């Protein structure tokens, strides 16, 4: 069941991904990215090879962290909904850090260790990505400093402790370790921080320190490439059950967990003419796929990264403080943006109230408490199952349960006790 | 790999388990326990059948929660220790509530649902057992009230939220719902509670309400019986690798996770003459196995339960507030006590400092952050591996990683930042 190659969608897209550009309009050259990223990762970012071998060392770590992850049929949920649909989910929560993020973290850490990188930097909001990279750098023996948005560092200590237990250095951002950080601390010594500032600090740190590089957890092509292990496994697992999905569902922040599950099936539709629908769920309050403009924009809020052509709410958009922290992103992966433009991926939006109710139903019927991000996928799967019931059709639904919610329980508490605030 | 029968050690013990007694010395009759427990569970408690069929419905739920759980070789830990020993661990943390507790919770909830019980009560300290039973009662559609020790209810909200998300009613104990609870609240309206009081409340609630029974998560024979699914799976998994353990290790509170792994191997030693050692780890500050007297004592601290013959520190022993909440128990399962008396199981004790350091090493090498309880098993496994190195022998070590530590991170935080207090 364990794939030996990742799937790269670049050669199969209905139109090419527009190049990354600098603010002056000039095209970013691959070598320019090598200051930050591993060389092999940069090669993958632009590769037109459809299949890219997963190094044996990475495959071994995939096994160690519990891959292939289980594909589970949600029979009790089907019974609860009285639907003729079959609902399957790919459960990424079994990994030690509880989400899919580790799939690319391990690959990136491996390439860095091979290329001799001794130290990595990254940013993290609530801490999912930081935890995954902390685990990966522990296994490949690379030092890591994580710039964690200060308000999360203070209010959500649990993922910080996870990162520190793996041996990472976690600093609240803005920090006194960078020029950018110092500037913000001068303005306000108790600055709450933001993902934009944390990215800026991590990048500055990487370019100003010896043998230090930077690692990113979503949006870019190489990240999505590594995540396709999810969909490739799922396809084999469904095949073994004699099943094929009619609809493939996931939640979208930057897009990597959804693309990871969906792209191997998108390949079947684009190249094999398979009839399969793609539904991508996002928060009503961060509607980058459904309301964002398709244009060039920065990947971060500080305007430091190259510009990407994508659906965006604007890099200065400030997402409201919903519990699904991983979906608080102004943009969408460029490849996913193209698939949306071509009507291949259908975006849907849900409120916080709706997604937590879906999560509660899922926990009661299937026994797993999903991450608030993944609750968006659960909600969309329930909607598709109810539609199948209405239309009296026995459809096969597949969704990505990208992570468990054991480190995000406050949202459920607020929901169960009516403290959620219904406007988001 | 999925066993169809549980293993009951009662007929194979070197001497029979002394009967449960009332404080006046009279023997407790099985029917007397049926006021509290499911009839089938009481039958199992006293059964002399070596193999007891796992009902198909329970086996199905075992599959749904991720059984068989993985048996993993800790290769990176071996390399780190430079030991010739092979270290295997059975990882129970993949279940939705993150520990082995659900193995008996599902069985008990199933029998209750079959016997028409509409409502269950139980007690919980930090919440591991309460979470597992909440999940099980959600799946078998039984109402549940959990009496949660008030200080945990207030200071450790996360497992409470887990239980509530599964639909259980969680009340802080002492509560105004029972006579016992009212009595303690009158003494002190902010009484912090204790496991003893919570047990008393749960039992009073069960016997004073229509169609309500009580469920227990450790110590008794039927609980251990259900946990043997761990060891039976492990045996088949090791067989498939051509391996057999030289030593079987686990941590002991009441004894159910360790007995669950060990008893199927104890059977091989007692009945098949296999040479295999058994090491059981407990906290230095709660040394019930190594320092407890072997005598009749109550199972709870309030003196409400029948008396069991076991190693005990006295039912009025107040365990210090170590982070391994699941090991804060004054007694040891009667069957395990007999095996200790006969030198078959060897107890070892460790300090908090020692076990968290073992946990940190395990997290850095194997990528999983263990529960503080399970850290005792990790520590013992490391000790055995170092002994093998010293003696230059290639031994096979098997231990039970009974749960992950994602809901117990504060202990790691205190350890990493030198706030643990070294006296425990």
Automatic annotation (TrEMBL), chains A, B:
It catalyses: (1S,2R)-1-C-(indol-3-yl)glycerol 3-phosphate + L-serine = D-glyceraldehyde 3-phosphate + L-tryptophan + H2O. The modification N6-(pyridoxal phosphate)lysine is found at residue 101. GO terms for molecular function: L-serine hydro-lyase (adding indole, L-tryptophan-forming) activity; pyridoxal phosphate binding; tryptophan synthase activity. Pfam families: PALP. Residues 66-403 form the Tryptophan synthase beta chain-like PALP domain. Its cofactor is pyridoxal 5'-phosphate. SUPFAM superfamilies: Tryptophan synthase beta subunit-like PLP-dependent enzymes. InterPro entries: Trp_synth_b-like, Trp_synth_b_CS, Trp_synth_beta, Trp_synth_beta/beta-like, TrpB-like_PALP, TrpB-like_PALP_sf. Keywords: Amino-acid biosynthesis, Aromatic amino acid biosynthesis, Lyase, Pyridoxal phosphate, Tryptophan biosynthesis. GO terms for cellular component: cytoplasm. The beta subunit is responsible for the synthesis of L-tryptophan from indole and L-serine. Belongs to the TrpB family. This is Tryptophan synthase beta chain. It comes from Ignicoccus pacificus DSM 13166.
């Amino acid at each position: 069941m364990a794939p030996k190659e990742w799937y790269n969608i670049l050669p199969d897209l209905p139109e090419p991904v527009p190049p990354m550009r600098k603010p002056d309009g000039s095209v970013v050259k691959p070598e320019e990215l090598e200051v930050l990223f591993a060389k092999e990762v940069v090669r993958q970012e632009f590769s037109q090879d459809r299949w890219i071998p997963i190094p044996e060392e990475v495959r071994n770590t995939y096994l160690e962290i519990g891959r292939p992850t289980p594909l589970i049929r949600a029979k009790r949920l089907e019974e609860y909904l009285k639907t003729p649909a079959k609902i399957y989910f790919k459960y990424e929560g079994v990994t030690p850090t509880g989400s899919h993020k580790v799939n690319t973290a391990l690959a990136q850490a491996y390439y860095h260790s091979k290329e001799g990188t001794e130290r990595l930097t990254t940013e993290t909001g609530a801490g999912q990505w930081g935890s995954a990279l902390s685990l990966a750098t522990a296994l490949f023996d690379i030092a890591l400093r994580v710039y964690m948005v200060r308000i999360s560092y203070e209010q959500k200590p649990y993922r910080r402790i996870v990162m520190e237990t793996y041996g990472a250095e976690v600093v609240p951002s803005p920090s006194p370790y960078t020029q950018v950080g110092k500037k913000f601390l001068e303005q306000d010594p108790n600055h709450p921080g933001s993902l934009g500032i944390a990215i800026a600090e991590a990048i500055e740190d990487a370019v100003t320190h010896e043998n230090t590089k930077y690692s990113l957890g979503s949006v870019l092509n190489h990240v999505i490439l590594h995540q396709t292990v999810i969909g490739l496994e799922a396809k084999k697992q469904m095949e073994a059950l004699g099943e094929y999905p009619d609809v493939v569902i996931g939640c979208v922040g930057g897009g990597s967990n959804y693309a990871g599950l969906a792209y191997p099936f998108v390949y079947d539709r684009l190249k094999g003419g398979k009839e399969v629908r793609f539904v991508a769920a996002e928060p009503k309050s961060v509607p980058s796929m459904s309301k964002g403009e398709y244009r060039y924009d920065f990947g971060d809020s500080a305007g430091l990264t190259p510009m990407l052509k994508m659906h965006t709410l604007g890099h200065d958009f400030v997402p409201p403080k919903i519990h699904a922290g991983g979906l608080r992103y102004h943009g969408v992966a460029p490849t996913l943006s193209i698939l949306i433009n071509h009507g291949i991926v259908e975006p849907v939006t849900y409120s916080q109230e709706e997604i937590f109710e879906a999560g509660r139903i899922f926990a009661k019927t299937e026994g797993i408490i999903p991450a608030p991000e993944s609750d968006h996928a659960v909600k969309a799967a329930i909607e598709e199952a109810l539609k199948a019931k209405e239309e009296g059709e026995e459809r096969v639904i597949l969704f990505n349960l990208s992570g468990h919610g054991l480190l995000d329980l406050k949202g459920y508490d607020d929901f169960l006790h009516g403290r959620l605030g219904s406007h988001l």
